[in-house]
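It is worth pausing here to work through a concrete case rather than discussing structure prediction in the abstract. The textbook approach is simple: state the sequence, then state the predicted structure, then interpret. We follow exactly that order.
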Amino acid sequence: MPKGYWIARVTVREPERYQDYVATARPAFEQYGARFLARGGTYETLEGGERPRNVIIEFPSLSAARECYYSEQYQKAKAIRQTVADADMVIVEGFEP
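Step two, the predicted structure:
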């Protein structure tokens, strides 16, 4: 079964309060088997717009990625994130080589 990925590009406006989002989202990520592949760090923009924080999260499946996003726990975290950061997010299905 192909894995699922969240790809997020984020501009954090309030770093202190962003930690509340991180803490609130953690239980959902743990429940749905999330594994962070990239979170912040050095990046290079090759084309298009940019945001200073780039995140890639791997899930066991596309359905797990969706279920995590729409879960009650993550929706609580999302409400916090939307007050302290701007984000572009997509869910992408991986492939099996």
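Step three, interpretation. The helical segments are 15-31, 62-70, 72-84. The beta strands are 4-12, 35-39, 53-59, 85-93.
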